[in-house]
Each structure stands twice: as C-alpha cells, then as structure tokens.
Amino acid sequence: MPGSTIYLKACINGARTPDEHAALPVTPEQLAAEAVAAHVAGAKAVHLHPKDAEGVDSLLASDVEAAVAAVRDAAPGLPIGVTTGYWALPDAEQRLRVIESWTVAPDFASVNWHEPGSRELAELLLGRGIGVEAGIFHAEAARSWAASGVAAHCLRVMVELGADGDVATADEVLALVSAAESPAPILLHGLDDSCWPLLRHAGARGLQARIGMEDTLALPDGSVTDGNAALVSAAVELLSR
C-alpha cells in the first residue's frame, strides 16, 4: 500500500454537488467506487456525506445505511466515517433522534464542536460504539471541546480551517487541542486555497492528514483533479518527502 507510514484519510465528497465537479460521488455505487480508488491510492480511512435522491447531504437512516453498506461491501475492513453536519438537519433534538435510528452504523462520525448539541451528539455516538471525530474549527471550539468531558474518549480530533486558514492560526488551535491532553490523534486539514499548505504543515508536524474532493478539487499544481484517487496520490507523494 502506498504511504504505509502516513495516516491519510480520504474525504470523498463533502457537501459539494456534481455542479462543482462531474465526477463528485453522490450515489452509494459512486461512493463505493471512489472509496475503493482512494484506498488503493493510499487512504487508510474514508469520510463521506450520504446524499438523498436530490444529491443533498442527508442524515436519514435510509440514506446513511445505503452509503455505508455500499462502501463496506466494496472495501471490507476499510474504516468508514460519515458527517453529522448540522446543515443536513438543523434541529439538534431531531438530529439526535435520527442518528439514534441508524441500524447500519459507520465506524466513526464527525461532530463539529461549534454546532448546537455537539456534546450530546458525541455522547450518543459513543454510547452506540461509533467512534467520534471532534471537528474543531476555531479556538473557541477547541476550548469548549477540551472542557466537555468527551475529549478523553474521541477517536480523533480534527483541526479544520477554512479557505483563509494559515499556519499561524493552525498552530494556535493545535496548541489548545494539545493542552487538553486527549489520547486521540490529531488531524489537520484546510479547504480549497488552504488545503495543500495545511496538508504540508500536517506532515511537517507529524499529524494525521486528509484529502479529497470535499476539501479541494485542485491538484497541487492547480489543475483540476479527475477524482479522489489523484488527490490521494498527490498527498501521499507530498507527505512522503
């Protein structure tokens, strides 16, 4: 497997739609194919956003189960994570009830700590044996997560910066996360313009990293990627230097 000493997760679609890139995976079959391709290219786990029939992010059991089952069948043993993004169901109580109804569960799920009801959601997931990736978008979220009591039980903590994120901001948030002394590994990533610079910084700091069509549609040279595998291959090459 390429990049055997690198922990790289593939985020294969995100909240994007095929309007942004024709190869963006939406259906369970497309998600499975992209997950397999990303894994072959070097990704050790996959994060995806299940979609409804309209191609919009969904947390409904039927959509989550179809996506997870398709990827699991195509890539047995590959850890699979899903979003719990508040934008997909903007009601904290309803979100809890819907996620509680999942019968085909992912291996892990991301919980954005700045969103309403994040601690309760993390506790629900942990109680169901689903790993929690805490998504930390800024310093305030890092402090809230560190004080939540959940920090010691997370599978992973992700410092997630927007397109305007830079190394200095990353290091500020990373310092707060590290101060929590959670045993969870730390992953750093950016979005669009900040994606490749922060991936390089993750490598330089010995952190976990992620790449995929959720985070960027462009390769390091600025050309448009033809899919997730090319992004993963480019990331493995950069992190191997």
Automatic annotation (TrEMBL):
Source organism's superkingdom?
A: Bacteria
Name the UniProt record assigns to this protein? 3-keto-5-aminohexanoate cleavage enzyme
Q: Which organism does this sequence originate in?
A: Mycolicibacterium psychrotolerans
What terms describe the molecular function in GO for this protein? 3-keto-5-aminohexanoate cleavage activity
